[in-house]
Amino acid sequence: MIQSKNLTDILAIGAHPDDIELSCSGSLIKHIQQGKKVSMVDLTRGELGTRGSAQLRVEEAELARSIIGAEDRLNLGFRDGFFKVDEEHLREVVKVIRLKKPAIILCNAVDDRHPDHGKGAELVKQACFYSGLMKFETKWEGSMQEVHRPKALYHYIQFKYIRPDFLVDITAQHELKMKAIKAFSSQFYDPTSDEPDTLISSKGFLDFIEARMLEFGRIIGVKHAEGFTAQRIPGVEDLFSLT
Questions:
Q1: Between the CA of residue 113 and those of 117, 119, 162, 230, what are the distances in Å?
Q2: What does the pLDDT look like over 193-227, one tens digit per residue?
Q3: How far from the centroid of its chain's Cα atoms is residue 6's Cα?
Q4: Which ranges of the chain does DSSP label H, i.e. alpha helix?
């Protein structure tokens, strides 16, 4: 089968609703502002989260999507905490990759505090490979799908510090990113909430997110930045493409 034109420039995938917002939403907003098309995918509904509910998190995710400006957002409904890197789950991710045909995929950190994050990273990594195999057949709404392999797969950095392979200046997008994060009002700092306290619901957690952006920004001489790691070494057109 012949690959068709990309329908989505960037496909951002997260194990849970809010993974994308916390880690790479500034970069998504920046590219949307440049005219790129972005789609979002959550692998689970985050139903094991202490605060809120699965349904509420889906509603918050849609609000965050609208703030970011992404084209759409899908939820694959995998079991929070218990999805696996197996054929069943790979097939569902491959279907979305072939549906959206992204040039670039952003996904979870390769290693992190939450087991689902590293597991999600491995699942998406393998799905990118299988999505390019003609004999790995999938259907969407009854029709056979064309093969598609993204040009690049990058992992955003989450709770654990990982040395980034590159950094994206999001100074101009910082305010909108924080608004998207705060769309998940059930999960993050709210002094009026009577739900149980968690690590991420403390004011200190949002301070940490801010500090991480400032730290990455300082490295490249800007105020705020987001960091990514690459599965393979990125190539550039010339030395002046690097700053």
A1: 8, 11, 12, 19
A2: 888 999 999 989 999 999 999 999 999 999 999 99
A3: 18
A4: 19-33, 54-68, 87-100, 115-130, 174-182, 203-220
Give the list of residues 6+ apart from residue 160 with CB closer than 8 angstroms, or none.
109, 111, 112, 113
Q: Which amino acid is at 97?
A: I
71/15 Cα distance (integer angstroms): 19
DSSP state, 146? P
Render pLDDT for 83-107 as a digit per residue (tens, 0 to 9): 999 999 999 999 999 999 999 999 9
Pull the structure tokens for residue 88: 């069943």
Alpha-carbon torsion angle 82, 39, 63, 176, nearest 10: 110
Beta-carbon contacts of 33 under 8 Å, excluding residues fewer than 6 positions away, are 69, 173
